[in-house]
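Posted in: Protein Modeling Q&A

I'm a second-year student putting together a small comparison for a lab meeting, and my supervisor asked me to include a predicted structure for Uridine kinase. I've never done this before, so apologies if this is the wrong subforum. The sequence is pasted below exactly as I got it from our records. If anyone can share the structure token output, I'd also love a short note on what stands out.
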Amino acid sequence: MLEGLLAPPHTFVGEASQRHDLQGLPSTPRTPSLQPKKNTVLVSHGRPPWYAEDGQRTSDAFVIGVAGGSASGKTHVARQIVRKLGSIPTIIILSQDSFYKYHNEKELALAHANLLDFDHPDAIDMPLFASCLADLKAGKQSNIPVYSFAAHQRLDETKYLYGATIIIAEGIMALTDPALRALYDLKVFVQCDSDLMLARRIKRDVKERGRDVTGILDQYLRYVKPSYDNFVQPSSAHADIIVPGSNNDVAIDLISTHIQKQLKERSHNLRGKIAVPHRYISSPSGTSSPENILEEEVDLDIMRSTPQLAGIYTILRDRTTRRQDFIFFTDRLSTLLVEHALQYLPFVPKSVTTPIGVETLGKKLDTQFICGVSILRSGGALERGFRRVINDVPIGSLLIQSDSKSGEAMLLHVGLPFYIRHRHLAEQTYVFRRLLFPAQIGTAAAAFMAIRILLDHGVQEDRIIFVTFLVACQGGVSVLKRAFPGVKIVCGAVDNEMEEGWLEGYKGEGNPEGKGRHVWVMKPGMGQIGVKS
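Accepted answer (user: helix_wrangler)
Welcome! Here is the predicted structure, written out as tokens:
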């Protein structure tokens, strides 16, 4: 899996328990054509908003537990569900095999001698499995352990995951642990004839691992069959649905239909509400006029207007401006904005000695972790200015785009710096957030999602500094500030008007007149900054 991705798209994590070598030696590397393809990244359809206009989460990820005997077809069933769901966004298949425990030297010796039972529940770190699954279900990031089946050992590296709408947790012990079962919204057991499971296991291990039938049968009789009889099969009593290990199209259809129904019930339209808040959302005083909402809610840091600043905005707004001039003045404006935003970072006194030997008191930055995160659309309009002002700081990115049918913001990619991917560091990190295209807060749909992502990772609200070129005061910024009052928004100018309309030339769903997708445009605005720069 690519480090730093969303939980990417559809992601499969872990390998099957039967990967352990049974010949008393570490597994021999296989040719690429024989490598198991369980760790797979598929194409994402994006993740829609999982929060309401108050910024709080409205629903958890939908979690499915899939258990069954070894070679019963668990992974195949999980993949069938993924294929049947089609355009459902962001699915993770999480295997219990990632959670084998760390082994000491004595246990390693037994493992390499084929004398360690990997089919017993005690072989799995169930508390860690439940903890990681709980974080993913709650919309937080998780760092999944990586287990080497060649070395019979858990590695120091981890796999970063975030952003799942659906999680499928699969493994032979997926239904045995009460803490895991409590996290599932749907529990599935894959039932398969014992003879068929053994035949599949022999065929697979001979083909993929070059093992002999005697070794396969030895492991099966010593560990696999007793485990199935004592732990795996009894756990089927906890299942909501029993799925055949073969010829199971009807069962897959039922499961997929149920999941789609559950997700539809959890969905909600957000962008329209925050784009024109005075229509849908009342201010704390009980009124809902745009004037009252703005007066009570919006707290922006707008740079003081100077002839220089007005001149830059005039050039950027002018549709006849040459591309090279547009890029030059975009960089100038971004540099001014980031410099202005630096006042919100913590500084402490520092005494230094000048070149002529005089001691003088100054200031130094009082934070260990600073990073930038760009909301990618079509360019890096603010990034060059950011790098000029803050040197040698990691910059991450988010890809957030509007859904072609609903117009809602969709999270397509997450590439966050190391500081944010680990919660204990994220809590100490100051984050500069920059809208790149359009470099403005209109409906605030992308801004909402970006801030929610940072909060999910543990970044403190008062450590987020949102830097943007332009804000529409009658757009979603009032709702944004009410939802996240601790976030500091620094902008260079404010436009008054948001115009509601339809995207020309697009015929969207729920639009019988064929006008296209619903859109909101900031006026006078600055156009498509990312495209021009």
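A couple of things worth pointing out for your meeting: The chain has a mean pLDDT of 80. Residues 213-232 form the longest helix (20 residues).
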